[in-house]
Structure formats: structure tokens, C-alpha cells
Write a structure and sequence with these properties.
16 helices; globular; 26% helix; nine-stranded mixed sheet; alpha/beta; Phosphoenolpyruvate Carboxykinase, domain 1; 3 domains; 31 strands; 586 residues
Amino acid sequence: MNAELDAWISEIVALCQPQNVHIVDGSEEEANTLIQKLIASKTFTPLQRPGSYLARSNPDDVARVEERTFICSERQEDAGPTNNWRAPKEMRNHLIELFQGCMQGRTMYVVPYCMGPLTSPWAKVAVEITDSPYVVVNMRLMAHVGKAALEKLGASSFVRCLHSVGQPLRAGAKDVSWPCNPQQTTIAHFPETGEVMSFGSGYGGNALLNKKCFALRLASCMARQDGWLAEHMLIIGVTNPEGEKKYFAAAFPSACGKTNLAMLTSKLSGWKVECVGDDIAWMHWGEDGRLYAINPEAGFFGVAPGTSMASNPVAMKTIERNTIFTNVALTDDGNVWWEGIGVGKGIEEPQHLISWKGVDWTPASSEKAAHPNSRFTVSISECPILDPSCRAPHGVPISGIIFGGRRSTTIPLVRQAKSWQQGVFFGASMTSETTAAAKGEVGKVRHDPFAMLPFCGYNMGDYFAHWLAQEKPGRHMPAIFYVNWFLKDSETGAFLWPGYSENMRVLRWMFDRIDTRVGAEDSPFGYLPCVKDIARDGKESEATLHKLLSIDKAAWHKEATELQEYFKRFGNALPDILQSLASPGQ
């Protein structure tokens, strides 16, 4: 084995004091053994879906905990105003106290994993040490784990990810189906040394450290240092009726239709969308001057509620088998259910379920049957519209970048940046209205630059500057667009745009704009589509399209004034051009 890894394992064994140590090899035999262990501990309930299981978490451990997530850079200004910061020495000492003896009575799993195609020069190998078999079986779906990752690692250094549920099994202690320690939950990132330490939570991005912790927070710091981009973006390939294909990367905040766009089913004759990835893109510049993206993940970790045959038929087909469901409801015949699953199929709400809390549920119950952040984990190989180039070693060439948010007013359906600088401004000015699935007041406008607010591992002002610095002579800069599927009629409150598969009509305009095959109206807010160039579905009127594509200058003036105030929080780190572009007069 790698000598550095061997030494680290010994160090963590001495610190955490596990009963056993298991080096994950990634084999099917190993996976079956772990699944049987999870069934025996009642963490997993087998489902009627082939190869699928249901897990229920502790009700106090159901989502990422941003308030307990820290960037531990040597200088506080390097973490910036959008991250929680602690001095590395102080945080490390605190965590060593927490990890002391935390794995007593448990098995310590050493999980070597590779992010990105194994043959890619851009792929990176890391190792997660965890005492959670639930984490191991999820990571098997989300990354390339085991022997293949170790072989790629060789004798090289690696990112270290240490995780514990924080509930040792000392003599006489009885285990539970979902061990965790929510009162002590802490997720700490050390960018200078390439480490993540996570304690107390067994859920999602708190415990699957390959995902947000490594692939975004640490990777964004690596990308800044080495001149590439690690982004919270889906990647899709769009093909027109003539067989021409273009790839797009797109960033959306939570609850803005990101997974739905990544798996979009086109209603335009002859047009199709194929999926490269639904969540994270690592993008590098090729020798030909084009921007290439790989998906560092090997699976999907999607939100279940709202997913249906109407909203996302591809996702529904993807999760028909070999899927881990967490915190959804269980039907009486051993299948899964969540709010919104029956939309488009005419399925009536069941009269009885076992809720995500493991208790009886009926339509009269006061709580939802599935948790709003309930999830499915599934291998990307199950996706029926997987792009043929999804594992291409150097990635796919990006022709367009799409930003977007959920706004009921002010922001038009689609616009195109007139320059790379204005495109970066589009990303920096991203906002979205909060929904019931998020903490806090519903409908409040929340800033989420580049959809990276919780995931940028360094000062976001410097992050904006890094994006601006990507434009260099000899590079073919992708076109940049901004979309808003969620405009509402001011009188009725109804959505003006149908969304879902109808978003293909907007993708078509963007596809053709890249080569200027269709025109656009010049405005201070970017290039706006002409009404005639948005394909009609036969239902919306020309007046509705005018509403979708128009700009309320008074509302925009208010927006720009508020944005200038928001930008001030970045101080001297904010590039001057962004403050200038936020001026109401621009």
C-alpha cells in the first residue's frame, strides 16, 4: 500500500480506537456483506424494487448543517465573509478531542476513492476513513472506490477525509439503527493541507465527504491555485435535428430545477438532451483553447420529493433499481413514496404509509410522509439518457454556461451576456427565493453567487476574480446565459412559463445563439430573445411571451441598488468591474 496512507491509517487507529479495520476493495462480495450488516442493524429495509433499500435517519440528522461547516485557512480573510472560519490549530485540537476513542466497538472502514473517470488526467484520488457502513455503500455508488482507486493513487499524496458518526460502542452500550451525535456535529476543511474532518453526522454531504467537501470546497481551492474551475454545475449534451451537438454547464441554487434540466426530456421534435452529470463539474482548458468539463462523480444523490413522471421521467426510470433511498416513506407493499411522486400518473395518495420517522401515516397526519430533503443514491450507469462521452478522459467541450434562480418577478425568462465580464456578473449576482424545503422565511430573496455560496472553499471575492481571469488570448470563451423559469403573473399569481420539458425551447434559443443563427435585442441587461425566436407550444399567447422577456426597469433599478450593497461585504476582494456593472445606470 501507499506508505503515506499506511502511516495515516495507523495514526487514526491510535486516535479513534476501532474494534476492527477494513480496507474497502470495491468488490460485489464486499458490498453484499455490508448490505446484510445494514439490514441486520435495521439501518436498511429491503424494498420490492430490485437491489434497493430504504434507510431512515435520526430526525436530528437530516441535512447539511451549514452553520457547523468551517473553512480552516491560516488567514481568516482567505475564508472570506461567506464562510464560517476557525483557526486550523484551534479547530484541529477541538476535533482531536472529539475523535479520541470515537470508534470504540465499531469497524473503521478505509475507503480509497477516485473522483472523475479513472483514465482522466483531471481525476483525483482521496481516502475517506469512516465508521459508517451506510457511508461506504453510498460512496460505492457515488465514486470509484477500492482497488482501482488505490492503483491510480500509487505512491502519490492524497486528500484525507476523516469521518465518524461520533457514537462509540463502549462496553455494555447498545447500538442504534442510525448512530449520530448531532449536538457535536462539526465539518471542518483545511485547504492548505488538503484535509476534511467531519464528526457527529451520518447524513448526506456531512458524511459523504467525496461530494461537497472534497469535490467543491477543497477542489475550488485547488482549482484557483492551478488555473481550472470546480463548480456546482450540471453538464448536458444537446443535439439538434441535424445531428449537431453542443455541451452546456449550468448552475442553479436549491429548488430551481437543476436535476430536472440535467435529465430533461425534449418535447421539440428532433432535439434531444443527454446527461453527463447533475451536480458538479470540473473544468479545464484544452490545448485547442476550449473549456472541457468532466463530471467527478459516478452517481446521483438527488432530492426525492417533487420527482415524478411529470417533472422528471428520466430520474424515475433511473431509480427503478439498485437505489438507496433515505428518509422517504414506505408503502404497505414494500415500495417507496414521497410527496409529489404521483403527479403525471394520476396516482392517488395512499391511505396508509410508514413515514420517514418509522411511524404510521395517513392523509390526516399533520406531518409529511417523506422528509423534504429525503434522497436517492444511484449509480450514473442506471441513467437511460447517459451521454456517450460522460467518461471521456479529457471531458466534453463546453459551448455555453447557464446561470439561473427562482424569482417570481424582475428577472426575465432568458438573456445572454454580451461579454465574459458581464457573464461573470450574471453568476455573481445570482439570487433565488427560498422555498418551504429551506430553513427561514419562504419567498425571501437569497443571494447565492454561482450557486456556490455554501461550497466555495475560499474568499468569494477572490473567486469572482478567478472567474474573470479565465478570459485570455487564444481561448474560446463559452457563451453565458441567465434563465428564470419561475416568473409569475402579477395579477393571478400563476407561473407564466410551463417549465420542465418545455425548457427545451429556451435551450434551443441558446443553442442557436451561440452561432448567432437567431437574433436578439440589445439591452443593458444583456441580449434578450425576440418573441418570434422562442418556439411556441401553442398555448401561451404572444402577450405572455412579451411578459416573460420584458424588463421592468424600476424593479431592476431596485435590484441593482440592493446588489451594490451586497457586493460591499466582499470589501477590497471584490473586482471593481462587478461593482461597476451593478450600478443602476449600467
